[in-house]
Write a structure and sequence with these properties.
- GO terms for molecular function: oxidoreductase activity.
- By secondary structure, this protein is an alpha+beta fold.
- It has a domain at 3-85 and 129-188: NADH Oxidase, CATH 3.40.109.10.
- Helix content is 47%, strand content 14%.
- The protein is built from nine helices and four strands.
- The chain has a four-stranded antiparallel β-sheet with strand order 1-2-4-3, with helices on both faces.
- Helix 2 crosses helix 7.
- It is globular.
């Protein structure tokens, strides 16, 4: 069995973290780099990743996350916040980055730049918000996989009130919306769920070959 598959069998949605164990700066930087390198549509990355270190803020977020203890017990709290819309300035900045990074004249990218703007402008604001939110799930996937390799636990969460989290963190003023929460740290030895067998569909139930 490959190490990747072994890591996937090892990981689970941790219910109780050991609050005495903290992620090292080196490991946190590795997780951040894994998130940064995540795929996204067009490579646009229409989101921000917020690392909430303040115990006071985490205590405020906890009630908005259905009182889940992981919010305050985990080593780190990460919130993926998608942009509610995409304006042309953001697209222009993206292409300026491409031009600089790949040493390509900006003029040579104008065709693709216009195509991207056209496709994005076709979307309503609600559709843009939904599309941007979907991109955060790709980044979360990279975080889960990188953390499993480092034997760091992650609990992905959709169980929270985005409107409350937005208000607590001042995200509305930034044009952002809390899409996903991930608590990151180390499982507590008292977390009984770590010993439960992983339940997934069989290959026969899950896959269709045409």
């Amino acid at each position: 069995m490959s190490a990747f598959i072994e890591n996937q069998n090892w990981r689970y949605a941790t219910k109780k973290f050991d609050s005495t164990k903290k992620i090292t700066t080196e490991d946190l930087n590795t997780l951040k780099e894994a998130i940064r390198l995540s795929s996204s549509s067009y490579g646009l990355q229409p989101y921000k990743v917020i690392i909430v270190e303040s115990p006071e803020l985490r205590a405020k977020v906890q009630p908005a996350a259905w009182g889940q203890s992981q919010i305050v017990e985990a080593s780190h709290l990460i919130i993926f916040a998608n942009r509610t819309t995409i304006n042309e300035d953001e697209v222009d900045a993206f292409f300026e980055n491409i031009s600089k990074t790949r040493e390509i004249p900006l003029e040579a990218l104008s065709g693709y730049q216009g195509f991207m703007k056209g496709k994005i402008n076709e979307l309503s604001e609600d559709a843009q918000n939904t599309w941007n939110s979907k991109q955060t799930y790709l980044a979360l996937g990279n975080l889960l996989n990188a953390a499993a390799e480092l034997k760091i636990d992650v609990t992905p969460m959709e169980g929270f009130d985005p409107a409350q989290v937005n208000e607590i963190l001042g995200l509305n003023e930034l044009g952002l919306n809390a899409s996903l929460i991930a608590t990151v740290g180390y499982r507590h030895e008292e977390d009984a769920t770590q010993h439960q067998k992983k339940v997934r569909k069989s290959n026969k139930e899950l896959f269709i070959t045409l």
